[in-house]
Design a protein that fits this description.
The chain is an alpha/beta fold and 226 residues long. The protein folds into 2 domains: 2-89 and 126-223, Aminopeptidase (3-Layer(aba) Sandwich); 91-124, no CATH class. The protein is built from 7 helices and 12 strands. The protein has helices at residues 29-46, 63-76, 105-108, 139-156, 169-172, 189-195, 203-223; strands spanning 2-7, 50-53, 80-88, 94-95, 102-103, 111-112, 115-116, 130-134, 160-165, 178-185, 196-197, 200-201. The protein is globular, with a radius of gyration of 18 Å. The chain starts with a strand and ends with a helix.
Length: 226
């Protein structure tokens, strides 16, 4: 089995970062995703589990190119799984019932019924937890997502936000079973603070996240036939 590791986003992806901490540090999602994949790849290599890092570049590679790379590998070896690694964010949004347009809460602020008020949106919020996505209708994807979700909750002790389906491009258009993991919310100050030290991202904390993914992969390798 080959694990196709997709570290989501890139150094040039807009709006995928936290607010500054008190020490000025800003968590970039691309940086977090790449560290998790890097640590996970070391673990897989040590166990002789095959993997491929789909996006070795630092810039943001378009979603359909990520899909193309994965599907090309699938054509040569159909025994593979797509794993997209992300961190989540929570933001307020508003949809006007007349024009159905989504407004940017960073610009416009809080919502009250159907009126939009220009009040400042808080930099941080309390939303946190872990969720895992799979493609609707994919039995294999659902089973894989359940295992990943179980090990992440067991290892990290964060809120279980469950397994879910969504129309993400990398889930809909890949030919193999595919899941997308969302670990923590970088709009939660406490979570971001737990990930960093004076030098940036804390390797030990990120190691725990990668370890939860590694345990899920080992269970799947041993017990699930794709």
């Amino acid at each position: 089995m080959i694990w196709l590791l997709d570290n989501g986003h890139g150094i040039d992806t807009l709006f995928k970062e936290s607010k500054p901490l008190d020490n000025g540090y800003v968590l970039k999602e691309y940086e977090f995703n790449r560290l998790i994949v890097k640590l996970l790849s070391f673990m897989l290599k040590a166990d002789n589990i095959e993997y491929e890092i789909l996006v070795p570049e630092f810039e943001d590679i378009p979603l359909l190119e990520r899909v193309r790379r994965a599907n090309q590998i699938y054509k040569e070896n159909k025994n593979c799984v797509y794993l997209s690694v992300h961190s989540n964010k929570f933001e307020y949004s508003y949809i006007d019932r007349n024009c159905k347009a989504r407004y940017d809460p960073e610009k416009y602020g809080y919502i009250n019924k159907n009126r939009l008020y220009k009040k400042p949106v808080p930099d941080w919020n309390r939303v946190n937890g872990i969720e895992t996505y799979y493609c609707k209708g994919s039995t294999k994807g659902r089973n894989i997502a359940r295992i990943f979700q179980y090990h992440a909750i067991n290892e990290l002790k964060l809120k279980d936000r469950g397994i879910k389906t969504d129309n993400f491009t990398v889930l809909l258009n890949t030919l193999m079973p595919a899941i997308l993991t969302e670990t923590g919310f970088y709009t939660n100050k406490q979570w971001v603070e737990s990930l960093v030290n004076c030098n940036g991202l804390d390797n030990q904390r990120c190691y725990d996240i990668a370890l939860s993914r590694h345990k899920a992969i080992k269970e799947i390798e041993q017990n699930i036939k794709l």
